[in-house]
Amino acid sequence: MEVPDPLGTVPLSGQERLRGTSQVPSLRSVCRAPTLQHPQGRALGSSQPAAPSPCPGQAAPSRPAPPSPSRSLDAATSGNACEKTSFAFLRQELPVRLSNIMKEINLLPDRVLRTPSVQLVQSWYVQSLLDIMEFLDRDPEDRATLGQFTDALVTIRNRHNDVVPTMAQGVIEYKEAYGDDPVSNQNIQYFLDRFYLSRISIRMLINQHTLLFDGSTNPAHPKHIGSIDPHCSVADVVRDAYNMAKLLCDKYYMSSPDLEIEEVNANNSQQPINIVYVPSHLYHMLFELFKNAMRATVESHENSPRLPAIKVMVALGQEDLSIKMSDRGMGVPLRKIERLFSYLYSTAPTPQLGTGGAPLAGFGYGLPISRLYAKYFQGDLQLYSMEGFGTDAVIYLKALSTDSVERLPVYNKSAWRHYQASQEAGDWCVPSTEPKNTSTYRVP
Question: Where in the numbering of this chain does the Histidine kinase domain appear (predicted)?
Fold first, then answer.
């Protein structure tokens, strides 16, 4: 299954026709996003908070403006108008999203911005935004223009295939050159969460357009609407992710734990659990969790005659769909749980780009990005571990597609202030490693 990828941004040099509002689409409306009419709103840079601009002459970006469900058109009955409307929407919306995150790239510490890898990523983003802006004055009635636009989107998507590992390499270059700095680390963590979440959203828009209008269909998934499955079987995706992780586990460890899966549909106990969702997003999360669970299980039971199974519970309620994966991999200490979601921490050796290894292996990005996929449509991913026993990983998704609205970063004064914040002194007592013996301690 395809796992999302790309993008960024640059100076807009006076292009103030890009418009937007603060509306956010539901997953069902994103499913039809290529058929949506872009809402009219304020011009780019017209009413943003007056935070200092890190790039002289660069217009302050507007808020992302995804279309609302009420503006949806029926792709099946709209014919060519569907692609025209998608073109009109994306040529304005993509630069808005790109410009928002590009402003934040420029707020990173100078020592990070100077790394060759980060500069390379910036150059990709600059070129991608310029490619989109070539179509601002093009006629949507021209079929050649529509075809060229789709080709441009494919080019952008391919250009950004290595954005994640390249940005990760930039962080490694920074750490090797300057070591750890708590303030910079905090800003990098904040930025990368927003950067990769923005990237997921842009990839989503690009995929929807190209999958619907490139003139071909996916024979393996004929009922998908772009990258969205209106009847996504959660159990099937769980099994797909398990089988792929099992292949890797068998290859490296010569054994793997079994899978036990159970479904609880509180709304209709006789029906399997299906939701409107992006299967590739769910697969990415589950595959990462299975890899971690299998590795922990095999390594902690290497002398056992039989490996304990990995148990998956899928539960559907009125508001949430929850997927709990339980392993017997001896767990993780509480103090290390949040560290597992840090981009600046990895338990694996640092990989080399271009070696043909597993994507992102060793960068420590598997769990952080998996959590972003969950958060993208208002869900979450949490770890609950019992050291000495095992770990429960829980994916929370919205049960109703109308609640599955995009979570998008917005560049504003609040975001700008976050990058200016300095490390404050702790206001809690930190116990020493050797507590005082109160039976002998005397007040001076």
Answer: 279-401
Find the Cα–Cα–Cα–Cα dihedral 178, 184, 189, 193, rounded to 10°: -110
Enzyme catalytic residues: 284, 288, 291-292
What are the tokens at 419? 């990058």
**What is the C-alpha separation between 356 and 352, in angstroms, rounded?**
9
Measured CA to CA, the distance from residue 186 to residue 107 in angstroms comes to 13
Which residue's structure tokens are 């769990």? 367
> Under a CB-based contact definition with an 8 Å cutoff, are residues 304 and 261 in contact?
no
For residue 114, the tally of other CB atoms under 10 A from its CB is: 14
pLDDT tens sequence across 407-441 = 999 888 998 988 887 766 667 776 665 566 666 65
353 pLDDT band, cuts 50/70/90, is: low
Q: How many CA atoms are closer than 13 Å to the CA of 109, on its beta-carbon side?
A: 21
Q: What does the pLDDT read at residue 432? A: 60
